[in-house]
Amino acid sequence: MNFLGVDGGGTKTAFLLINQKGEILSYLTTETSHYIQIGMDNFKKVIKKGIKESCINAGIDLSEINYTFFGIPGFGENDKDTVIIRKQLSDIMQESKFKCGNDVEAGWAGSLACQPGINIVAGTGAIGFAKDQKHNSARASGWGYFCGDEGSAYWLGKKVISLFTKESDKRLKKTEIYKIVKEKFDLKRDFDLIEILYNELELKRNKIASLAKLLYKAAQSGDKKAVEVYKQAAYEHSLIVKALIKKLNFTRTKKVSVSYSGGVFNASHFILEPLREYLKEENVKLIEPILKPVTGAALYAKMLANNLEKPDQKTIDKLKKEEKRIGVN
Q1: What does pTM read for this prediction?
Q2: C-alpha span between 14 and 262 (Å, rounded)
Q3: What is the CATH number of the domain that holds 43?
Q4: Is there a contact between 213 and 183 (Cβ–Cβ < 8 Å)?
Q5: Residues 6+ apart with CB under 8 A from 218
Q6: Cβ-Cβ contacts under 8 Å for 240 (sequence gap 6 or more)
Q7: pLDDT digit string, tens, across residues 115-165
């Protein structure tokens, strides 16, 4: 038996195929599958191409994929779009052989290996997802870049732009972030940034999100403003965790596992230390992700196909080894 996990995102889409033993048969990444960014027709093309290439890599036919979990960005947020997405996917494979959920569910499946707890996703966007011991689920944040997405890479990217413009104007004292942005885009005049934002970055969500890397570089250089922005992001993530605790009925006799996924958390202690501090009064424990989101999606597909309530530790351990062997990221 073979199981496919698909983890969509605002920047890329990952496909991972495993067998019953937990061996990875194929792993690949393609462009974003966020239908709001690329349209429904292109969404279908990205998914169809990724599945086809996965089958070719594994040397199997589409009919040999027993079950698939699709983690699709934006799924479930618009009833009309949800129906269309399901129809698009059922054109590719039998509807009885897949389940579709929001990409945040893939994040939870990976970081917590499909076990009760809370997962925060902070990639291009930001959202939280949780499941309690009775399999009730809830989400918080994830309202999109216009309404919110606080603590996301896009949100951090906008903070970078804001700091640069204020420091350029002398509204704030110049720090490393000013120098880093100026050098990154080789600005002759500070106002040239406007043209770059519109013409080079095209104001695209994923390209603005990429500016978060400049914030990390500034924080590493000791820029106090950059470090403070990460603290603000951590505070927003803590609100997500607290909201999800209120929404669900976690067992009070044990601490709730809280994990994370997404590129923002590559900032390590700049984001994790303040997050831990903001959550110190809560009955939670912050843990490192167990698996990558796409691996979690494949594990979830295996569990759904076999009607399992929880994964076996042997499979989890095997998948962790396989991730290292293949280089899943």
Answers
A1: 0.88
A2: 13
A3: 3.30.420.40
A4: no
A5: 175, 176, 177, 180, 225, 226
A6: 120, 126, 127, 128, 140, 141, 151
A7: 999 999 998 889 999 999 999 999 999 888 888 899 999 999 999 999 999
